[in-house]
Amino acid sequence: MDLPRSEGSVRMLTDRVSLDVLHKLQDRFADLGRVTVCLCRIDGELITSPTWGSPFSALIGTSPRGREEFARAVRTCVKGVLARVPLLCHEGMTLHGSPILSEGRRLGVIVVGTRSPIPPPLEKVREIALAYDCDVDQLLAGVDQIDPYNGGAPDAIHRFAEVLADTIASLYVQAEAIDRQLTDLRAVHELSHMLAGTVDLQEILDTTARRVVETMAVKASIIRLLKEDTGELVTRAVCHLSNAYLKKGPVMLRENAVDLAAFSGEAVYIENMATDPRTRYPDEARRAGIVSGLCVPMTFRGQTVGVLRAYTGEKRVFAESEAAMLRSIASQAAAAIINGRLHEENVESERFQRQVTVAGQIQRRMMPESPPRVKGLAFGCVYDPSLSVGGDFYDFIEAPNAGVGVCIADVVGKGIPAALMMASVRSALRAHATLTPEIESIMVEVNRHMCRDTLVSEFATMFYGVFSRDGRSFSYSNAGHPHPLWLHGTQIRMLEAGGMVVGVDPSATFDCETIDVELGDAIVMVTDGVTEAMDFEGRLYGQDRLLKSVKKHRDLGAHPMAQQLLWDVRRFVGLADQSDDITIVVTKILG
Fold first, then answer.
1. How many Å from the N-terminal Cα to the C-terminal Cα in the chain?
2. Helix, strand, coil: what percent of the chain each, to 5?
3. Which of 239-253, 329-343, 555-569 has the highest mean predicted lDDT (pLDDT)?
């Protein structure tokens, strides 16, 4: 909205417009109109030395008597300038004054002297020369050069003087605006420099509130920040406001017309807080001694975080420049607030990331440092989490009265929650697998454990199998996990026996199967991060590509085969983001 302008003190015209510029404008005017021109202050004192319209006028005006007479005539002319009363001086020169006005303020006066079109007779010139102590011959020569109308008729000259007065007034106003803007910019720059030196949010707010009072010469200021979850504008910083006023009651954005308008981008002017119908607490404002107010949004890069208000102790009409400066201060503060919040979030994020890193290190320690050395068997393992921590895991467990147990599992979700569930599943599996060789019993107990400790939406897929001591048979059960591949001779078979995922139905049962393995056989176990890996075009790696990769690398040792399977997936995915953990466990049957 447009704010009413305030009256300011009038400074000297030359404080805003240089004397050199004034002289140039005056000289051009005198030359065009063949007139005498000078500029003076509102008290009649000359600002510029006169520019004479002819040699005749210059000879008279530069004489001692002429200078004194002209100065006196100018002062008299200025006194009657608003009545537009012409004044005679210098033996026939008529003076007219045109005020230089800006918003009702008189900045100075342009005084224009014109002469009669009829030159004085010879005897009169001699008398003038004697009166003003001038050289008669020079004055007679000057008379021949009097040509008062070459620059235009007197009325036109006077109108031009008024135009020139308006031009000078405009230059003054522009210079005044520029000076005010520079002052405001210095204030905003100083505030910006101060705010840049701290990331403490409360210090930013307190500094801003204090600088508003100092810079704008107001009684008080207040900063309210929006609490997005409740819509309340919470007071976060004040300067020169009493506790009684601050405790007047809650300020809800949706109920406050002034703050709503500010949040829409307006600078809202309140002439009298005690009588304005938009004021929510007029009595409290009256008791606090605040009268006029100005409210602006605290916005940075399209994000409004609150409002900044300035209050006066008497009625005051804020100028547009003051509204602009308050906006600038609010914007600088908003930027600092947002950056301060980002810094706090970054500090918290770094702290959390350190915890995640430690959690990842702990999780990796849960994975076998290296596969066990078992006669007749060779193991190859690859674990590639998409985040620092993940939900995949694999393990090797010494089974009672048997050989070695092999497990691969994938819990739902990613990150810390998945890692915690993974630890829970691993602990349950290890606890039961070391007590009994019965695979069905192990799967049932792990499932019950998961059902007790997790929600219905939290579950895991798991494959667990145990090799016999001689490494010639393998008993397993599959709880909803991607089917491992059994390379047996020239055939590839999926190991499907088992049941549903663990952690959903506490009464679930699981089938088991025992297979006879031979020299050269291999069992390849993967998590769904392999088959569900996607390239940039959104295509899945899929089961078929996995089968081709397994066939291609079946003659490699267990660990090289696991590594090559991973590299085939990575080559397919390319630079696309990895969306899930990848775990691969390969077991080779040796002689």
1. 90
2. 45, 25, 35
3. 555-569
